[in-house]
Amino acid sequence: MTIFASTSAPASADRLAHSLLPVTARHLRAGPNGADDEGQGGNQTGIATKTRPKTKRPSLYRVLLLNDDYTPMEFVILILEQVFNKSRDEATRIMLHVHNKGVGECGIYPYEVAETKVTRVMDAARQNQHPLQCVMEKQ
Q: Which first-to-last residue range defines the signal peptide (predicted)?
């Protein structure tokens, strides 16, 4: 910023200090045209509100194991323990449900998690040459 000093009269310290005064409450109340709001009721107060966007809960997907006649029960239990973090008892219960009913639910997860678990099951079954099928469906 460049300041031009007048050569005819030196700037006094008072005039310089006056030009650097902070903005007063009167200046803050001035309307868009520079008019003061005091004639319209004086100090006006308002409530500051902060809007929060509504976050939508992610859709959940059921991960299901499908029964077949060739995959060993012990392999299904191993998959349930390793991929779905089930205890031995819970894995056995789910495996028997799949064996007796034809399908069994392994868990309910958001889309990305469910997709990852299905992929892990299918990869493990393929590597071990088992026809085990795992699918996901929207809940």
A: none
